[in-house]
Structure formats: C-alpha cells, structure tokens
Amino acid sequence: VSQTLSIPANAAGSYRLRFRAAQRGNYQAGAHDFAVLLDGVELARVQPAGTSYEARSLVLSLLAGLHTLSFVGINSSGGASTSFIDDIVLERVTSQ
C-alpha cells in the first residue's frame, strides 16, 4: 500500500506516523512482517506480536515536496502469512 504525500514549504519538519498492526487471526503459517518505507528507503520493519491490534509510531523528518509512504509485505517466515494495518495517521510534531 502506498500513498503520495505533498508537504508544503511552510510545513516541512518533523512528523509522527501512527498506525495499528496485527497478525491474521485464522490460519497463519508463521509470523508475518512488513516494512515501512519513505521514498523507497526502509524506515522500520514491523512484526506484529499477535492478533490484537497494537499501536506503532515513527518520527519522520519531511522536507517540502512530494514523498511516497509505503507499507510493503516482507513475509520473512514464508507461507500463507498476513499482517493487517489500520488507523494510519500522519501528524505534524510541533515544539511546545
């Protein structure tokens, strides 16, 4: 899954990417993992611990312009394994 982000010049800076992830609950051959990429560069590799959704977050530094955020299945364990991703939010981090 990929999404293009357009960051205006006056909004460049730090952002927090939040999402929830879980393993598939029915037949699962092994633990599934996936990568989070920004502009084709892997930022994190995620392997949800179980079938209950768990919150994850990353802090990103985004320059002005277009960026591509992607969630890419890796499936290191092989077989019929799946992760679910939900509630994806990108929010600007402002200093207090």
Summarize the structure.
This protein has strands spanning 2-7, 13-23, 34-38, 41-46, 54-62, 65-73, 83-92. The protein is mainly β and 96 residues long.
Account of the 3D structure:
The structure is a single chain. The protein has 96 residues and is an all-beta fold. 0% of the residues lie in helices and 58% in strands. It has strands at 2-7, 13-23, 34-38, 41-46, 54-62, 65-73, 83-92. The chain has a 4-stranded antiparallel beta sheet with strand order 1-6-3-4, with no helix packed on it. The protein has a 3-stranded antiparallel beta sheet with strand order 5-2-7, with no helix packed on it. Strand 3 (34-38) and strand 4 form a beta hairpin.
Any chance you could write out the topology, listing elements then pairs?
Layout: E1 2-7, E2 13-23, E3 34-38, E4 41-46, E5 54-62, E6 65-73, E7 83-92
Order of helices and strands: EEEEEEE
Strand order within the widest beta sheet = 1-6-3-4
CA distance, first residue to last residue: 33 Å
Q: Given the C-alpha coordinates, what overall shape results?
A: elongated
What class do helices, strands and sheet pairing give?
mainly beta
Report helical residue fraction: under 10%
What do the pLDDT scores average to? 91
Number of helices: 0
Strand content of the residues, in percent?
A: over 45%
Oligomer: single chain
Find the count of extended strands (DSSP E, 2+ residues).
7
Poorly predicted runs: none
Rg? 15 Å
Summarize the biggest pleated sheet. 4 strands, antiparallel
